[in-house]
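FORM 7B: Structural annotation worksheet

SECTION A. Query
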Amino acid sequence: MEVDTPEDSKDTTAAKKKNEMITPSASAADASKYPDMQLAQSIHRLTMVTGPDAALDADGAKAAGIPSDLSDTVMKRVGGEEVENPSLYRHLMSTLGWEGRAGCLSDADLTAMEGRHKTKMEELEKKVEEAKESSGDMEVLDARFEVARFAAKSLSKDEALEAYDKVFALPKLSSGKKIDCLMESARVALFHGDNKKTAEIVDKAAKLAEAGGDWDRRNRLKVYSALSKLLVRDVKDAASLLIDCIATFSCMELCSYTEFVVYTIVSNILYIPRTDLKTKIIDGPEILAVASDMPVVARLVNALYDCDYKGYLHAMVDLQPILVADRYLQPHSGYIMRELHVLGYKQFLDSYKSVTLESMAAAFGVGTEYLDLQLSRFIAAGRLTAKIDKFGGVVETNRPDLKNAQYKDMIQKGDVLLNRIQKLARVVDL
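SECTION B. Predicted structure
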């Protein structure tokens, strides 16, 4: 898997084969492969290793499976014939310090590339006009899509989004083609890290799909929506959408299947009940098929289910660089690590009315001082229903009274409702 690659090259080859076995759906097969989201993932990893806000050292990069020659690979792809994106190249040249390096394109090279792109765009726009004059609506649509896809590959975000807006504005465009256009447009925003624009486009596509989209496009749109929600830390809703798509995933233009399974596990482990964790995650046939390609993530979920808390914390340590190396998970790596800590401590404490700090520390393989600090923070924040007897060295759990909690909630909501009714009555009397 890209985010969690075993060192053995045979395992890497097996992972690629499993990802290649995913059959794109009818609409996915017609989707543009640009912007290339795997390139976006590579750029993110490079930024985490060599960027101004680098978060991974050499050991972390190795643990996340980041190759040492990634900088040269990205430089050649962005400036090479396949992508040729001068605006992106300039941005990376300034942020990653490429200027002056061997193989780095000069400003004159990039200016010449921009001139070629201007000529190419004029040719493509001419094809659109010719299609309008001498061909039908389908030919115009194809020509307009060709303009948009070239812009998505080689021009700036704003130019690409404007080109897709022109596709969407075409008359007599079917709802299916409108959804395809919006999904490709969402990928442009996603590639450039514009989460707000991505969410807006995906929401617009979702409304169209509800009104008249086919099953295939609605299913693919679920994945777009899930990743969009994941980026803005709506992890619970994202988890629900991801687990629904695990058996029907076909959005290879967004991420590999192994990466998709990693997102599914990491998000769902925080929310689904223990019984569902076993049936849907640990024993899920789709997940078992790629479990060997993501050993750290598989070890994490199995250790939690088996109550191997020492192994669970060790897996969390190994998971951290993998989270940082992924563009969807990195913004929330601190949040995810914190929630995983809470999850492990809560599951352990649910089994006891009281337990000594020393015994709990031994179970997790940490020191008592470290555990005391962790527990006190989570208890003070209301994340754990327990209290620490520092003198006796004991942690006592306080099981919440569900009936009393529901009663208090009903009283509070009832009081708010009565206040609103009284205010409304005064308005009516006036």
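SECTION C. Observations
Residues 1-18 have pLDDT under 50 and may be disordered. The two ends are 68 Å apart (CA to CA).

SECTION D. Sign-off
Analyst initials: ____
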